[in-house]
Amino acid sequence: MPFASQPAAVQLSRLGRRRLLLIGAVLVAALATGIAWAAVSQGSYDSSRAGCVTVTVPSSTGGALLHACGGRARTLCRHAFASSDRFSLLARPQCRLAGLAPAGQSPAQ
Asked: What is the extent of the structural domain holding 37?
Protein backbone atom coordinates (compact mmCIF):
# COMPACT_ATOMS: atom_id res chain seq x y z
CA MET A 1 0.00 0.00 0.00
CA PRO A 2 1.54 3.33 -1.00
CA PHE A 3 0.06 5.39 1.85
CA ALA A 4 -0.28 4.23 5.42
CA SER A 5 -3.03 6.79 5.93
CA GLN A 6 -5.23 8.90 3.67
CA PRO A 7 -3.71 12.30 2.87
CA ALA A 8 -5.72 15.29 4.07
CA ALA A 9 -7.88 17.04 1.47
CA VAL A 10 -6.70 20.46 0.37
CA GLN A 11 -9.27 23.19 0.84
CA LEU A 12 -9.81 25.48 -2.13
CA SER A 13 -9.40 29.16 -1.55
CA ARG A 14 -12.22 31.55 -2.38
CA LEU A 15 -10.42 32.51 -5.62
CA GLY A 16 -9.99 28.83 -6.54
CA ARG A 17 -13.72 28.15 -6.11
CA ARG A 18 -14.58 31.17 -8.25
CA ARG A 19 -12.25 29.95 -10.99
CA LEU A 20 -13.84 26.49 -10.97
CA LEU A 21 -17.30 28.03 -11.06
CA LEU A 22 -16.33 30.29 -13.97
CA ILE A 23 -14.80 27.40 -15.92
CA GLY A 24 -17.92 25.30 -15.31
CA ALA A 25 -20.20 28.14 -16.45
CA VAL A 26 -18.17 28.65 -19.64
CA LEU A 27 -18.31 24.92 -20.43
CA VAL A 28 -22.07 24.77 -19.84
CA ALA A 29 -22.61 27.86 -22.03
CA ALA A 30 -20.47 26.37 -24.82
CA LEU A 31 -22.37 23.08 -24.65
CA ALA A 32 -25.75 24.86 -24.70
CA THR A 33 -24.64 26.98 -27.68
CA GLY A 34 -23.52 23.88 -29.58
CA ILE A 35 -26.77 22.06 -28.90
CA ALA A 36 -28.86 25.08 -29.96
CA TRP A 37 -26.86 25.51 -33.17
CA ALA A 38 -27.19 21.80 -34.03
CA ALA A 39 -30.95 21.94 -33.47
CA VAL A 40 -31.52 25.09 -35.54
CA SER A 41 -28.94 24.77 -38.33
CA GLN A 42 -30.36 23.30 -41.51
CA GLY A 43 -27.05 22.15 -42.93
CA SER A 44 -26.04 21.95 -46.57
CA TYR A 45 -28.32 19.04 -47.51
CA ASP A 46 -31.56 20.65 -46.30
CA SER A 47 -33.31 21.00 -49.67
CA SER A 48 -32.76 21.00 -53.39
CA ARG A 49 -31.90 24.40 -54.87
CA ALA A 50 -29.45 26.27 -57.09
CA GLY A 51 -28.40 23.30 -59.20
CA CYS A 52 -28.04 20.85 -56.29
CA VAL A 53 -30.44 17.95 -55.75
CA THR A 54 -31.06 16.12 -52.47
CA VAL A 55 -33.32 13.06 -52.62
CA THR A 56 -34.39 10.96 -49.64
CA VAL A 57 -34.83 7.33 -50.67
CA PRO A 58 -35.79 4.18 -48.75
CA SER A 59 -32.82 2.10 -47.67
CA SER A 60 -31.99 -0.89 -45.51
CA THR A 61 -31.33 1.44 -42.55
CA GLY A 62 -34.59 3.35 -42.97
CA GLY A 63 -33.66 6.13 -45.34
CA ALA A 64 -30.72 7.57 -47.22
CA LEU A 65 -29.88 10.99 -48.62
CA LEU A 66 -28.55 11.18 -52.14
CA HIS A 67 -26.98 14.54 -52.90
CA ALA A 68 -25.58 15.76 -56.21
CA CYS A 69 -24.56 19.10 -57.65
CA GLY A 70 -23.54 20.37 -61.08
CA GLY A 71 -23.05 17.75 -63.78
CA ARG A 72 -23.98 14.85 -61.53
CA ALA A 73 -27.27 16.56 -60.64
CA ARG A 74 -28.07 17.25 -64.32
CA THR A 75 -27.39 13.59 -65.18
CA LEU A 76 -29.51 12.41 -62.25
CA CYS A 77 -32.40 14.65 -63.31
CA ARG A 78 -32.15 13.66 -66.97
CA HIS A 79 -32.43 10.01 -65.87
CA ALA A 80 -35.31 10.81 -63.48
CA PHE A 81 -37.42 12.36 -66.24
CA ALA A 82 -36.57 9.61 -68.76
CA SER A 83 -37.53 6.72 -66.43
CA SER A 84 -40.53 5.86 -64.31
CA ASP A 85 -38.98 3.71 -61.55
CA ARG A 86 -39.52 4.56 -57.87
CA PHE A 87 -36.26 6.51 -57.54
CA SER A 88 -37.09 8.62 -60.60
CA LEU A 89 -40.52 9.48 -59.22
CA LEU A 90 -38.91 10.58 -55.93
CA ALA A 91 -36.21 12.60 -57.69
CA ARG A 92 -38.45 14.58 -60.07
CA PRO A 93 -39.86 17.06 -57.51
CA GLN A 94 -36.34 17.71 -56.18
CA CYS A 95 -35.06 18.30 -59.73
CA ARG A 96 -37.82 20.86 -60.23
CA LEU A 97 -36.86 22.62 -56.98
CA ALA A 98 -33.24 22.74 -58.13
CA GLY A 99 -34.28 24.22 -61.47
CA LEU A 100 -33.10 21.16 -63.38
CA ALA A 101 -36.38 20.01 -64.96
CA PRO A 102 -36.09 19.46 -68.73
CA ALA A 103 -37.51 22.08 -71.06
CA GLY A 104 -41.27 21.69 -71.45
CA GLN A 105 -41.76 20.32 -67.94
CA SER A 106 -43.97 22.60 -65.91
CA PRO A 107 -43.48 22.76 -62.11
CA ALA A 108 -46.84 21.03 -61.52
CA GLN A 109 -46.15 18.01 -63.75
From this structure: 14-43
